[in-house]
Amino acid sequence: MEARKGEILDAVQRLFADRGFHATTTKHLAEAAGVSEALLFKYFPTKETLYSEMLARVCKHCAEEREQSLKLPPSTTTLAILVHHVVRNLVQDIPGDAARSQRKRQNNRLMLQSLLADGAFARQFLGLLDTSVVDALARCVMAAAKSGDCDAKPASLKEARVRAWSTLHVAVCAMLYRLPQVGVVEYRSARADVVSWMSRFCLRGLGLSEAAIARCYRPESFAVVSQ
Asked: Lower CB density within 10 Å: C or N end of the chain?
């Protein structure tokens, strides 16, 4: 039963991402999942239940993908790795993994659909980021400041958290430009270069000195961590 539910959730995710909650009917959902409406309701009593479980599944998968990099201890190097991971995850597809890249695009479209509606999924998803990625980035900024790697030291952990959110805002903005089938911004550069330059921009905004960035931001050495 659980396997069948998982198949249905996978099938309807793209539909919700493309149409949003209100424009998607249970008939559309049943057709996408290849089942009758009666069978759909057997697994999920209401459209709201289906949508809620689908979003929870998305959040769980995203949390599992972040787990490896979030285990690293707070430091300037960890900050560079995490920023690279955040930017790369939102700006660049995953080389050689079209299926996972497609799932990422669907997740991003779900976020946009949520922001255009009641924001429920966005609040849930960003709430998870607040207690994971944002906290990790903020702790790393404080560690970097303590190590003398910041030109502009944060006055408090609260300020470091706002800087961390600003990094996410930059990356999310770039992600939104990529949501259409054909991106709306042409950087005229290789995507990997865009990730590198944008990551360095964010590290400066977090307060790191140029010397610290040159020493610690070496994406070729931690590419595996940021997958």
From this structure: N
